[in-house]
Amino acid sequence: MKKNLLVLSVSSILAMASCGAEPEPSISSQSKSEESTKSSSTTKDTSSSEKTYTLRLDFAGGEAFAYESVIRPSDASRTIPSPTREGYEFLGWQLNGSGSYINNLVIHAGTSTDLTYVAAWQELTFTVSFDYASAAYQNTTLTISYNQEVTLEELTWDGHRFLGYQVNGVSTEAGTVLQIKTHTRIVALWETSSEIIYQLNGGTNDPSNHLSFDDGAFTLLDPTREGYDFLGWSTELDSNPIIGRVADPSSSARTFIANWEPKTYEINAVDELTEMVHADQFTYGGNYSIPTPSCVGYDFLGWYDEDGTKWESQGVYSVTHNVNLVASWQLHEYNLN
C-alpha cells in the first residue's frame, strides 16, 4: 500500500505541472539568468561611457555644409567632401591650417583625438585675348582675376566701319562691361567703308571736300578757323600735316585731321600825357597784358581803341587784327575844405 500511495503522489505533481502551474526555477537556471543580466548591464555601461572627440572644419570663406562633429573611436571610417567657393579653386584640407593638402579627407575608424582642418583656396584667373582684326591696333592678351570687369571700347579704323565685338562667339556691343568668369576671346568686327571722316578741331570744312570716295581720288581743300592759320591735313597713319593732301581710295587713310596754329597780333599802346609807348605781340586766344600808366594830378580812365572800345589792362586776346590803343585821362579833383 505505501508503494501505491507514493506513485499516486508523484503522478499528482506531474499532473499539476502539465495543467499550467509554473515550476520553481532551479538553482542552476536562476544563476544563468543573473549572469546574463550582469553581462548585459556591463556591455551597456561600456558603450555610454566611450570617450568622444571633436572634429572642426574651417571653410575659410567657402560654402559651409553640415557634418558630424563628434568622433567616436568605435565609429566606422567616413569621408569628408570637398567644399566650394565662387571664384576659387579648392586646393585641399590642411590639418590645423598648415602642411600638405588633403583632397580626399577620411576620418578613420579608431581616431582618438580632436581634429581641426582648414580649407585652402587659390583665386581663379583667366586669360582674356583681344583680336582687333585691324592694322590700327595691336592684339593683346591679359590675365584677369575672377569677376574682374572689362569694358569694350568703341574703335576706329580708316576705311572701315566698326560693328562691335564677338565675345566667345556672341555678338556684343561696344560699351558693354564684361565680368570675367571664364577664359574669354574678344574679336573686333569691321566692314570696309568708302566714307570719309573729317576731324576739324574747331574749324569749318570747305563744302567742296567730298564725303566719300565714290568719285575716286581728289585734293583736299583748306578749312577755315577764326584766329588760326591752317597748317595742313594729317591722317591717323601720317601725322605730318600737308596742305593740298590728295585723298586716295587706294590708301587706307579715311580720316583726315585739320591742324592749326593760332595767329599772332600786335597791341600798340600810346600815352601822350606820359609819353609812354608800349608795343607787344599776343596770340589769338591767349592772355595779354598792358601796363597801367600814372600821372600826378590826373586819373587814368583806361585804354581805348579806334572804335572807342575800352580794353582792360589784362584779358584774353579775342580779336583778329592788330590793335592801337590810346590812354584816356581826366584831371584829378581835390577837395580844398
Short description:
With 337 residues, the chain is mainly beta. 12% of the residues lie in helices and 39% in strands.
Can you put this structure into words, describing what you see?
The structure is a single chain. With 337 residues, the chain is mostly beta strands. It has two helices and 25 strands. The chain has helices at residues 2-18, 27-48; strands at residues 53-58, 70-71, 78-80, 88-95, 105-107, 115-123, 125-131, 140-145, 149-151, 160-167, 170-172, 177-179, 184-192, 197-199, 218-219, 228-235, 246-247, 255-262, 264-271, 276-283, 287-289, 298-304, 310-311, 314-316, 323-331. Strands 8-7-13-10-11 form a five-stranded mixed β-sheet, with no helix packed on it. Strands 20-19-25-22-23 form a five-stranded mixed β-sheet, with no helix packed on it. Strands 2-1-6-4 form a four-stranded mixed β-sheet, with no helix packed on it. Strand 7 (125-131) and strand 8 (140-145) form a beta hairpin. The longest helix has 22 residues, at 27-48. It starts with a helix and ends in a 6-residue tail after the last strand.
Unreliable stretches covering 5 or more consecutive residues:
1-47
Give me the strand/helix succession.
HHEEEEEEEEEEEEEEEEEEEEEEEEE
In DSSP terms (H or I, runs of 4 or more residues), the helix count works out at 2
Secondary structure tally: strands: 25
Q: What is the CA–CA distance across the termini?
A: 182 Å
Largest sheet: 5 strands, mixed
Overall morphology:
elongated
Structural class: mainly beta
Cα-atom radius of gyration: 51 Å
Mean pLDDT: 86
- The side-by-side strand order for the widest beta sheet comes to 8-7-13-10-11
Tell me roughly what share of residues is in helical segments: 10-25%
- The proportion of residues in beta strands is 35-45%
